[in-house]
Amino acid sequence: MSEKRDGFGSKLGVIAAAAGSAVGLGNIYRFPCLAGENGGGAFLLIYVAIVLCLGIPIMMAEFYIGRRGGKNPVGSIKSLAPKTHWNLIGYIGILAAFVVLAFYSTVSGWTLEYIYKAATNFFAGKDIATIEQGFTDFHNNPFRPFLWQFVFMGFTAFIIFKGVKDGVEKYTKILMPALFVILIVLCFKSLTMSGAKEGLKFLFKPDFSKVDGTVLLAALGQAFFSLSVGMGALITYGSYISKKDNLTTTSLSVVAADTLVAVLAGIIIFPAAFTFGIQPEAGAGLAFNTLPMIFNKMTGGYFFCIIFFILLSIAALTSTISLLEVIVAFLSEEHGIKRNTATWIGTLVSLFLGVLCTLSLRKGSVLAFGNMTFFDFMDKFSANFLLPIGALFIVIFVAWKMGKESFYDEITNQNTLKVSVKKFIYFIIKFVAPIVILAIFVNQLI
Length: 446
Ligand code: PFF
Prior knowledge:
Layout: H1 11-22, H2 25-37, H3 41-69, H4 73-80, H5 88-119, H6 128-140, H7 144-162, H8 164-191, H9 196-204, H10 213-227, H11 233-238, H12 247-275, H13 285-296, H14 301-335, H15 339-360, E1 368-369, E2 372-373, H16 374-402, H17 404-411, H18 422-445
Antiparallel strand pairs: 1-2
Helix pairs in contact: 1-8, 1-12, 1-14, 2-10, 2-12, 3-4, 3-9, 3-10, 3-12, 3-16, 3-18, 4-5, 5-7, 5-14, 5-15, 5-16, 6-13, 7-8, 7-14, 7-15, 8-12, 8-14, 9-12, 10-16, 10-18, 12-13, 13-14, 14-15, 15-16, 16-18
């Protein structure tokens, strides 16, 4: 505990790290799949509405807790509300970090396999059926999915070992801009394909006939998952933000970057899906099968394919480090465990759960119950339950326990900044967010 607490060195570093946490597999791999399953444009509209109305205020609430409390999720809440049980919210976050990291490390491992496949020209000249078969074969391979999952978690642990400024900040600051450039190049390519019109129609034209409680919950879960809110990652990052930074503009930048990447991913994937006759409902394979197909048809596709999967893995990496950081900050600050030891513990426990996720995807796995694999369970349990519940308690804590004065004081940097929307933000945190989250939950239960 005597070690000096690490922190971000610059405002750009904060935005890169928080956007790095937000932008991840959720945007590029999960968002298009969910939009495909839940009515395309209608899902997008609901999603954007939730992100704008709830996402920004909840993100600010998390940054507020983190920066004011100055620690991990449990420790921050403890220091803001000593001798109470509010810190249980922090524990929900720690649990969520393990759950998300488990299935996330499985998919992150896939991105490395796909870099390898791209580099060895596996996709060249193959049709979509063969590429899809390759994906299934990979899940059933007794060795490779685990190898890549371990390697990926190794990279994550490496950066966390280095610390916040020399690890998290340094790497995300280079990687995030690179990700944007490649996404935009791919977008242009996809838009010139023959299925572009149909794909864009699918993504942007709302089909409200598909919208029901399940779709609302899925959009809510995805919004929270994508923004990394509801589980303390942003509380933890908030605790490393300098007292001089503006929490409102930081949140806005992060939300804008995150939503932009999700929409860009949709613009890349749907036109391509329609061009090659892949059903948009095709699930995870949409990203892992459709994209290699685009690269096959593209001049310089060999290189773009490699670069794309490198960047996908980087997007995943900047998210896994934020997840592991939650666990490590918690273990080291609350239990006095050395940071390096805490990194080992966090990595090994999440790898154990992650391996179960990977195993559950094998053909005939005992970890699959009916249609639901352990992998799906961890995904749905976090996005549709832990994150919304976490977010609900976070906003209740901020508005109903901490109150207006404390919140305004923090987001205006002790009255040195003018934040004209502060009343509006607080109103959402106090009334709108809890009611909307609860309503969607109750609707789902009924
Ligand atoms: N926001 C990440 C994504 O969209 O892929 C996933 C995630 C990272 C969720 C970190 C939660 C978190 F704390």
